Amino acid sequence: MKIALLGYGKMGKSIEKVALDRKHEIVLKIDYNNQHELTTENLQKADAVIEFSTPSSVLTNIQHCFNTGVPIVIGTTGWYEHIPELKVQCEAGNNTLMYASNYSVGVNIFFKVNEVLAKIMNNYPYYDVQVEEIHHTQKLDSPSGTAITIAEGIIDNIDTKKEWANILIADTPAEDNLRADQLLIESHRIESVPGTHTVIYDSEIDTIEFKHTAHNRNGFALGAVLAAEWLKDKKGFYTVADMFNFSI
Ligand SMILES: NC(=O)c1ccc[n+]([C@@H]2O[C@H](COP(=O)([O-])OP(=O)(O)OC[C@H]3O[C@@H](n4cnc5c(N)ncnc54)[C@H](O)[C@@H]3O)[C@@H](O)[C@H]2O)c1
C-alpha cells in the first residue's frame, strides 16, 4: 500500500519503520514544518493516511482526508468530543475513518478484560475503583485517551460510577474532593514512559490491581499499520474494536 503519514514525531517515525518492514511505501510525510505540502494532489497519491499529530491539528487533517476521499487511521488523542459530528460527516460523505485511543493488541485485550472484570466487581460494591495512568512528560492531553476508554469500560458496567474525573499529579499533592459517583483517573507524567495503565479495586480487606505496561511504541505502530490494511476497500466510521473483535 501507499501510505501518507500526517504527523512525523515519535509515533510517525515508529509507524514508518513498521510500514516499510511490511513492504508498504511512504508517499507523503507531513509535520509541523511542511504543512503546505498537505494538498489534495499529494493526498491522492496515498491508499491510506495514518494520522498521529496533535489535538489542535487533527480536525483540520481529517477534513483534508474527507475532501480527498482517502481512508484515514487516526491515532491522535484529545479530540473525542467531536466524534458524533465527525461520524455523521464521514458517513454522509461516504468516507472511511478509524480512530483508537490505543492501537496495541495488548491494550485492546486489556480493554476487553477490563469490561469483564468490571461486570464481576459490580456485584461487590465494597470495593472502590480508580484508574491510574503514567506517560512521558511531553504528552499534551490528560487523562490519556487510553485511560478514558478504560474508565468508560468501568462506568458502563459499574452501577455506582456515573462519570470520570481527572487529577493530574504534578509536584503538588492532589485535592481529594470527588463525589462517590465519580471515577478517579489519576494521571502521572514521568520522563520517557511510553504508557502504563492500572485499574485498582480497593477494599478494607484487599486490593486487586489490573495493569498494562507498554515497553515501547512498536505495539501502537503495528496496530495502526494493521488498521490501514484492514480499512482497504471499506467505507464508514470504525473504532479499533471493529478490527480486533475479540470474542469470549
Ligand atoms: N492511538 C494510539 O495508539 C497512540 C499511541 C501513542 C500516541 N498516540 C497519540 O498520538 C499523538 C502523537 O503522539 P507522538 O508521541 O508521536 O507525539 P509527537 O509530539 O512526538 O509528534 C507529534 C508530531 O505532530 C507534528 N505536528 C504538529 N502540527 C502538525 C500538523 N498541523 N500536521 C501534521 N503534523 C503536525 C509535530 O511537529 C510532531 O512532530 C498524540 O496525540 C498521542 O497521544 C496515540
Automatic annotation (TrEMBL):
Entry keywords, A to Z: Amino-acid biosynthesis, Cytoplasm, Diaminopimelate biosynthesis, Lysine biosynthesis, NAD, NADP, Oxidoreductase
Keyword NAD applies: yes
Annotated function: Catalyzes the conversion of 4-hydroxy-tetrahydrodipicolinate (HTPA) to tetrahydrodipicolinate.
HAMAP family attached to this UniProt entry: DapB
Active site: H135 (proton donor/acceptor), K139 (proton donor)
Domain Dihydrodipicolinate reductase C-terminal span(s) in chain numbering: 106-243
Residues that bind NAD(+): D31, G75, T76, T77, A100, S101, N102, Y103
Protein name according to UniProt: 4-hydroxy-tetrahydrodipicolinate reductase
Residues involved in (S)-2,3,4,5-tetrahydrodipicolinate binding: H136, G145, T146
Subcellular location: Cytoplasm
InterPro entries: DapB_C, DapB_N, DHDPR_bac, NAD(P)-bd_dom_sf
Gene of this entry: dapB
Origin: domain of life: Bacteria
UniProt subunit comment: Homotetramer.
Signal peptide: none
Main location (coarse class): cytoplasm
Family: Belongs to the DapB family.
Organism: Mucilaginibacter gynuensis
